[in-house]
Amino acid sequence: MFDFDYVFDSDSHQQTVFECAALPLVDAVLGGYNCTLFAYGQTGSGKTYTMEGDVTNEVHSGLIPRMVRTLFSRILDDDSAQNGNREYTVRVSFVEIYNERLRDLLNPTDEDLRIRDSETNHHSGVFIEGAHCPYVSDPDE
Predict the structure, then answer these.
(1) Which residues line the annotated binding site for ATP?
(2) Which residues does the UniProt record annotate as the domain Kinesin motor (predicted)?
């Protein structure tokens, strides 16, 4: 079940979209949850701009760079992590679904990716089997 939360018109700023749609996911990740940010729409509707934007321009930076910067900023500011009482492990994946085909954007091989629904020790819920999911230690990675 999915809830309808917001509509952003063409005059919306990247920061506004980030604060409404993505920042709550960063908070959830820091609370220990796995999260997915999913952009859906027809070709030319602005998904790439919204998700990636211009990473060299703070105003036009998209959701992904903003989320990554915020996530690592909060980890670095966490006193519990700095004094060794808490440890963070960050893994990322980046997958495109186009014409009902999955493509791993971090490891674009011909490997067969599948959407799975699982209740195992490693996964609970829906996940993409075979997606490259490297560990990262800073925003540039």
Answers:
(1) 41-48
(2) 1-141
Q: Residue positions in the annotated binding site?
A: 41-48
Is residue 3 included in any domain, yes or no?
A: no
Task: Report the number of distinct structural domains present in the chain.
Answer: 2
Question: Cα–Cα distance between 137 and 71 in angstroms, integer?
Answer: 11
Q: What is the pTM of this model?
A: 0.81
Q: Are residues 95 and 62 in the same domain?
A: no
Report d(CA 39, CA 87) in Å as an integer. Answer: 30
Integer Cα distance of 135 and 83 in angstroms: 22
Dump pLDDT digits (tens) for 59-102. 999 999 999 999 999 998 888 777 878 888 888 888 888 888 88
CB 134 within 8 A of CB 92: yes
Extract the runs of DSSP E, i.e. beta strands, from the chain.
Answer: 90-91, 95-98, 101-104, 114-119, 124-129, 135-136
Which residues, other chains included, contact 60 with Cβ-Cβ below 8 Å and sequence gap of 6+? 14, 49, 53, 54
pLDDT tens string 1-54: 778 888 888 899 999 999 999 999 999 999 888 888 888 888 888 889 999 999
